[in-house]
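queue> pop job 88
queue> type: inverse folding (structure -> sequence)
queue> payload:
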């Protein structure tokens, strides 16, 4: 894999099962902000209940059809499971082995960086946690490590990509 100038070498990590609270939508790429804009709402909901996130917000891509619909979820990891509210639903990120890569740069670069991570995994003969159609993923995640209120320069944002490997 040719490494992007601003990415850390891919690695394999074991992740524990992680509860979260999220909002799920079937959207097109043009409608992505409808999901992304829900992060402050989730954070406010947790803040009102004095529940601290157990990690940075993430996007979970469940079904990917770039020319059609994406089934995408935005969520916040938690230390303990909680109940849902309105359109916010609790869930569990699955435990397992993940191929990961941390990218520093503009979020618009994440499509290419994700493709590089997937190509690297395939070059290592890894099997992904994906259904037979190749569209529904067990866990294909973007953890957004940079708080935009603290770092307004999007070219300096850090994102961890994590894709679950098949058991």
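queue> result:
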């Amino acid at each position: 894999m040719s490494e992007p100038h601003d990415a850390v070498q891919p690695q394999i990590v074991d992740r524990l099962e992680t509860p979260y609270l999220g909002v799920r939508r079937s959207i097109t790429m043009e409608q992505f902000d409808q999901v992304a804009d829900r992060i402050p709402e989730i954070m406010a909901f947790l803040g009102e209940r004095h529940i601290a996130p157990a990690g940075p917000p993430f996007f979970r891509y469940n079904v990917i059809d770039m020319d059609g619909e994406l089934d995408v979820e935005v969520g916040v990891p938690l230390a303990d499971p909680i109940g849902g509210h309105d359109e916010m639903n609790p869930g569990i990120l699955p435990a397992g082995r993940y191929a990961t890569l941390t990218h520093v740069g503009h979020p618009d670069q994440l499509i290419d960086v994700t493709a590089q991570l997937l190509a690297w995994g395939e070059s290592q003969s890894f099997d992904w946690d994906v259904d037979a159609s190749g569209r529904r993923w067990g866990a294909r995640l973007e953890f957004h490590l940079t708080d935009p209120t603290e770092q307004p320069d999007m070219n300096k944002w850090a994102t961890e990509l994590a894709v679950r490997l098949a058991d």
